[in-house]
Amino acid sequence: MTATSPGPDLRQRFCALLREAQHLQGTLEDWTVWVCEDRVAPPPVGSTVRLLNLSAVLRAALHAAPDEFGPEQEPLEAAVSSLQRVVQVMREVSASRAERLARRAACALLN
At the top level of its lineage, which domain of life is listed (predicted)? Predict the structure, then answer.
């Protein structure tokens, strides 16, 4: 069985996700968030929640990717999948914080 070489689309997807993750990481301060049922949310009483350190997850995703995309596609697919999950959570955190800041600003203007 021969290894499938990663195509340029998969490489481009990895690089785009990496750029977005690095940008989002630069815009947020606290990278430990509550994650409840795979959604970023305040921890509801009595529910199963976990603390997720996004920086650690991002490092793990990057570690899964070969430094130089080698002849096998599977490691790169795993890295893209990990990065997609990380970026999704990062987007949710960023949107949630932006929404809270906008509400605070609106309240300050009204008072």
Answer: Bacteria
Residue among 61, 68, 110, 49 nearest 87 (CA): 61
Burial of 106 (0-12, 13-18, 19+ CB in 10 A): exposed
Percent of the chain that is helix, strand, coil (3-state, to 5): 60, 10, 30
The count of other CB atoms within 10 Å of the CB of residue 58 is 22
Residues making up the chain, counted from first to last: 111
CA distances from 5 to 50, 66, 73, 75, 102 (A): 37, 13, 5, 11, 46
- Cα separation of 13 and 41, whole Å? 28
Determine the pLDDT at residue 105: 79
